[in-house]
Design goal:
The chain is α/β, with parallel strands linked by helices and about 425 residues long. The chain has 9 helices and 17 strands. Helix 3 packs parallel to helix 6, helix 5 (about 220-245) runs antiparallel to helix 6 (about 275-290) and helix 6 runs parallel beside helix 8 (about 330-350).
């Protein structure tokens, strides 16, 4: 057996009592430990990651557009938060999901968004395995967490026009009959990345691993010491923000008849500030990718048919779903808020260097919704991709498929699967990837 040329193992962790924390990519302590080519030093190339961000109910009908190329690309007002990333952005127009045009106008447009599968009605639950979970099944054993499935709004178990609203609440499906459990509690999502035992959940991750971190620090370069310090500081920041989550008295979303709690507040809960909730989940996703704890993630910012309200934007008079049936200035403001979360994620990923590229350059981020506009227009879907896919995805382009005969959304998923080394003969209703992607 060939001796591993790296001084550190392929899966290097900082460990403490009941805690394990994967390391970020370090030049002098390769984490992934690629096998070297004959006669050449090991490259330890970072892996490619894939994430999906979802926002329900579509966008402003006149302000979702992009034109041009590269840094000269012009964006509609909804997309303005992505201005700094135009050269790494792929704007796709005209893709659609044929099965989403059947059934009702919400659940049937969301439950199969990442699979293209037909949906069962009449109380039965059946969709299809989603693209993120197909990747997790193939590559999940390479990481501590096969896939990270996050959300910022609770699942809705009701029925709407003969279709379960679970379809509107889940985009990730582990099997045709199993929506992947959606984690909406930041503390539990954080624990899943770092904690090994539920009984240790009250212990600070950093406090548990600091001793080993100090030992590691003495054996790495000055530049990597700085990177390690930044990483540990970011973990501490997320820990501290989670501990403050839920302290605000502001309640965003469905308004219950009981205005004040009649039981003591649990120690860990859902942040009552939707902006803080989304940022926490985004930062947890970044940590998951940065530490290679997972390479596959979905973040559902809200449900289709969403009941969220946005007092942080001064838009507190109407729930998201009802607001989506307008093209008002407030609807545009809410749209931009959702795109700000994508821009924030891209900025965080782009600030983390991994060899020749940033973490954004080593990732593919798909942003989409269940419909183009709030009036249920699903004959074409709003789709944006950000990142470089490890050099396999070229941004700064607008791809228009509106007049193409083969414009299935599942063709895009075949392209993603191909760039991650998985080449099934078909996915959903598609048999060929999008050549231009």
């Amino acid at each position: 057996m060939t001796k591993n040329p790296h001084p550190f193992s392929r899966r290097r962790w900082l460990r403490g009592a009941g805690v394990s924390m994967a390391l970020p990519w370090l030049e002098s302590a390769p984490v992934w430990g690629d096998e070297p080519a004959s006669g050449k030093p090991a490259s330890s190339q970072p892996p490619v990651r894939f994430a999906v961000l979802f926002a329900g109910n579509g966008f402003h009908s006149k302000e979702w557009w992009a034109e041009g190329e590269g840094r000269e690309m012009r964006l509609g007002k909804v997309l303005s938060p992505l201005e700094p990333f135009r050269d790494r952005m792929l704007f796709l127009r005209g893709l659609f999901n044929a099965e989403a045009l059947k059934g009702n106008i919400h659940s049937s447009q969301t439950g199969n968004l990442l699979s293209g599968a037909p949906l069962a009605a009449g109380g039965e639950i059946r969709s299809g395995t989603s693209v993120d979970q197909l990747l997790a099944q193939r590559y999940g054993n390479s990481t501590k967490v096969p896939s990270l499935v996050l959300g910022c709004e609770k699942s809705n178990p009701s029925i709407h026009k003969d279709y379960s609203m679970l379809y509107s609440s889940h985009i990730s499906w582990s099997s045709p009959t199993t929506p992947t459990p959606l984690e909406i509690y930041p503390a539990l999502a954080f624990d899943r990345l770092f904690k090994d035992e539920a009984s240790r959940a009250d212990q600070s991750v950093l406090d548990a691993v600091l001793s080993e971190a100090h030992d590691l620090r003495r054996g790495i370069s000055r530049g990597d010491q700085h990177k390690l310090d930044e990483y540990l500081a970011s973990v501490r920041d997320v820990e501290q923000r989670i501990s403050r989550a839920g302290q605000s008295g502001r309640l965003e979303g469905w308004r219950p008849t009981l205005q004040k709690p009649n039981i003591p507040r649990p120690a860990d809960g859902i942040p009552q500030d939707i902006a803080a909730h989304m940022r926490l989940m985004t930062d947890i996703l970044v940590l998951a990718f940065q530490t290679d704890t997972t390479r596959i993630a979905t973040l559902k910012l809200n449900n289709d048919h969403s009941a969220l309200r946005f007092p942080n934007l001064g838009v507190d008079y109407m729930i998201h779903h009802l607001l989506s049936h307008s093209d008002t200035a407030d609807w545009l403001k809410v749209n931009q808020f959702f795109l700000e979360q994508l821009g924030y994620l891209a900025g965080r990923l782009d600030s983390i260097q991994e060899g020749e590229r940033t973490l954004l350059g080593n990732s593919m981020i798909l942003f989409c919704s269940s419909m183009l506009t709030g009036n249920h227009e699903a004959r074409q879907l709003p789709v944006v991709m950000l990142g470089g896919g490890g050099g396999r995805l070229r941004g700064g382009r607008v791809l228009d498929y509106r007049e193409k005969p083969e414009r299935q959304m599942c063709r895009l998923y075949l392209s993603v699967l191909d760039k991650m080394g998985l080449r099934p003969p078909r996915f959903g209703d598609a048999t060929q990837p999008l050549d231009e992607v």
